[in-house]
Amino acid sequence: MSDSSLKTLHDNISDLISRRRLAQAIDQVEATLSVYNAPWQLRERIEKLRTDYGYLRRYALDGVADPGRASLYDAIASQLLGMTDEVIRASRTADSPRLYFSTLRYENMQPDSSITSLLERYTENVRKTGLALFGGMDNAADDRSMRDVQEKLASRLFALLWVTHPLSDADAAAIEGFICDPTVGRGIKQQLISSLMLGALEIFDAARLRIMLSIYYRSGEISAELRLIALASLLIAMWGNRGRLSDRRLADMLAAASELPSWTSDLRMVFVRLLKATDTERITGKMEREVIPGMMKIKPELAYRHDLFVI
C-alpha cells in the first residue's frame, strides 16, 4: 500500500474521531484489519473496543450518570488511532526506505533482539571492564576490545529501543532499573532517554511517556541533569502526540508530579531551554539562508581588497 493511501486512511479515521463518529471509525478500522490480514490480537482488540463503546452508548441513552464517560470515550478513540498506527507501521515495514523501518527490519532478523537481555549484557560488560581496570589491565588491546563491545551494545540498545513497539512492562522495568544503576555511565543513559522520545514521536506508546516521567520522579537515584533531560523529552513527546494523551496511568502520574516541590521550576527551566533551542535554530537558518550566501557573493571583492592591503 502506498504512503499516500496509508496517509489517507489515517486522515479518514482521525477525521471520524474528531467529529465524534466513533462507530464509523470502529467499522473502518475493522475493515482495514480484514483487508490487510492483521494479527488476531488486533481483531480481538477491535471487538473489545466495539463492546466497550456499545456499553458506553447504552448507558448514555439510558441516562445513567457516569463521571468517567468522557475519559473512557477518549481512551477508545486513542486506542483506535493506535491500532491504525500499528496497521500502517506493519504495512511499511517490508519495503519502506526510511531509516526507522530499515532499522526495524535489521532488528527483526537478529536472534538477540531483546531489550532486557541487551541491557543485562551491557551491565555485565561494564562490570567486567571495571574489574579489569581495578585489577590493572596489562593488555591495551583487551581494553579496547571490551570498550568496542560496550559501544556496539550501546548502539544496538539505542536502535532496538527506538523501533520496539509496544514496550512491555518487563522492558519498561528493565530500562528504569538500568538508568538508575550508578555503575552505568551517563552517556548511554542519555541515549536511551533520547531513544524513548524518538520512538514515541514515531508511533505513540504511552509506556514510553510513563518511563520518562518515572525517571524524572527518581530525584534520589538519578542526577538532576538526567531528570531534566527526561522531562524535556517527555514534553516534546507529549507535544508530538497531543490529542492522544488519554492514558489513565499517565494522567495519574502527571497529577502526582504536579505536587512535587520542584515541578513548576523544572517546567519553567525546560521551557526556557526549549525556547532558546528554537531561537538558535531560527538564527542558524537565517545564517544559512541569508548571511552566508551574502558573504559568498562579496568574497571576491574582499579577497581583492586583501591583496591590495598586502601590497
Short description:
The chain is mainly alpha-helical and 311 residues long. It has 13 helices and no strands.
Give structural notes.
It is a single chain. The protein is mostly helical. 80% of the residues lie in helices and 0% in strands. It has helices at residues 3-18, 22-35, 40-61, 69-93, 99-109, 115-134, 140-163, 169-180, 186-202, 206-217, 224-240, 248-257, 263-310. The longest helix is centred in the C-terminal third of the chain and has 48 residues, at 263-310. Residues 302-311 have low confidence and may be disordered.
Average pLDDT works out at 85
* Count of helical stretches: 13
Task: Please count the beta strands (DSSP E, at least 2 residues each).
Answer: 0
Report how far apart the termini are: 68 Å
Radius of gyration: 25 Å
Q: Give the fraction of residues assigned to helices.
A: over 70%
Structural class: mainly alpha
What portion of the residues fall into strands of 2 or more residues?
Answer: under 5%
Shape: globular
List the keywords.
311 residues; mainly alpha; 80% helix; globular; disordered C terminus
List the helices and strands and how they pair.
Elements (H helix, E strand, L loop, with lengths): L2 H16 L3 H14 L4 H22 L7 H25 L5 H11 L5 H20 L5 H24 L5 H12 L5 H17 L3 H12 L6 H17 L7 H10 L5 H48 L1
Helix pairs in contact: 1-2, 1-4, 2-3, 2-4, 3-4, 5-7, 6-7, 6-8, 7-9, 8-10, 9-10, 9-11, 10-11, 10-12, 11-13
